[in-house]
């Protein structure tokens, strides 16, 4: 089972969306974590590096980082500069409710996950548009006059449309100096995501990708911050949780997520989510 001190769930979202405007003069060291909701990060100031599923991003002011639910990530913050950012948590049901004509507002998160590249770095004109929408959104959220919630939703949806339009253009090559990733580790992570129900032991992965056990274990830990076993265990639990919430019977969800022993699954599930699968589905 994954050590909760290394990877854990952070935050709970009960609203349609929640915006935080944060500025820290003292850097807090965070552990690797994930959320059950999608997250948008807009860097306003400071020097911060973000690691998302083994890819390291060197952020600049007004960069946008899209972190889909259940992606394991961590910020690494330089304590010598104040760290200011806008963070928005998004409710998937709200996005689905406001998606029309086959245009899914959560598409930007799907696209970035599929590419394995989560950064948007736009030109001056688009940055000014983001700035305008975020300023209007913050103002509407602070306001208490008639229609302020409707107005805030309007600005929020405009921001999502803008982000989806920009995410539709793959600019990975254009911002090559903004990130670092190990192509082989990226290939391994994609393989794990697509084959959770199969044998993903160190020996199996090392054999499939023609590398020694030692090199795989060392490089995986160095690249992602956690061991291969820990990573696979957490991804299987998150997959099982998603299936359970979608109505799949618990035993079937455990099996399809790659757990061979049901009692092991129950212990790991309880240890990670602090509730039984039946309570989780409630």
UniProtKB/TrEMBL annotation:
Keywords on record: DNA-binding, Transcription, Transcription regulation
Xref: InterPro entries: Homeodomain-like_sf, HTH-like, HTH_AraC, RmlC-like_jellyroll
Transcription is among the record's keywords: yes
UniProt keyword NADP, yes or no: no
Pfam families, per the entry: HTH_18
Residue stretches making up the HTH araC/xylS-type domain: 186-282
SMART domains: HTH_ARAC
Annotated GO MF terms: DNA-binding transcription factor activity; sequence-specific DNA binding
Domain of life: Bacteria
Official protein name in the record: AraC family transcriptional regulator
Organism encoding this protein: Oscillibacter hominis
């Amino acid at each position: 089972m994954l050590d909760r001190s290394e990877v854990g769930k952070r935050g709970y979202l009960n609203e349609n969306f929640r915006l935080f405007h944060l500025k820290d003069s003292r850097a807090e060291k965070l552990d690797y974590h994930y959320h059950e909701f999608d997250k948008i990060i807009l860097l306003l100031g400071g020097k911060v590096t973000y690691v998302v599923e083994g890819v390291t991003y060197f952020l600049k002011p007004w960069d946008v980082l899209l972190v889909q639910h259940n992606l394991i990530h961590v910020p690494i913050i330089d304590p010598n500069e104040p760290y200011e950012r806008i963070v928005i948590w998004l409710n998937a049901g709200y996005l689905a409710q406001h998606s029309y004509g086959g245009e899914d507002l959560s598409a930007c998160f799907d696209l970035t996950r599929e590419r394995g590249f989560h950064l948007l770095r736009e030109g001056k004109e688009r940055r000014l548009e983001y700035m305008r929408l975020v300023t209007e959104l913050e103002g509407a959220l602070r306001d208490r006059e008639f229609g302020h919630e409707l107005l805030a939703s309007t600005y929020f949806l405009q921001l999502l449309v803008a982000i989806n339009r920009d995410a539709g253009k793959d600019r990975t090559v254009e911002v090559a100096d903004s990130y670092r990733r190990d192509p082989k580790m990226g290939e391994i992570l994609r393989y794990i995501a697509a084959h959770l129900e199969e044998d993903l032991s160190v020996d199996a992965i090392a054999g499939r990708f023609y590398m020694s056990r030692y090199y795989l274990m060392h490089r995986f830990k160095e690249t992602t911050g956690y061991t291969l076993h820990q990573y696979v265990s957490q991804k299987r639990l998150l997959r099982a949780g998603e299936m359970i919430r979608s109505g799949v019977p618990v035993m079937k969800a455990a099996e399809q997520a790659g757990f061979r022993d049901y009692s092991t699954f129950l212990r790991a599930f309880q240890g990670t989510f602090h509730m039984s699968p039946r309570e989780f589905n409630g």
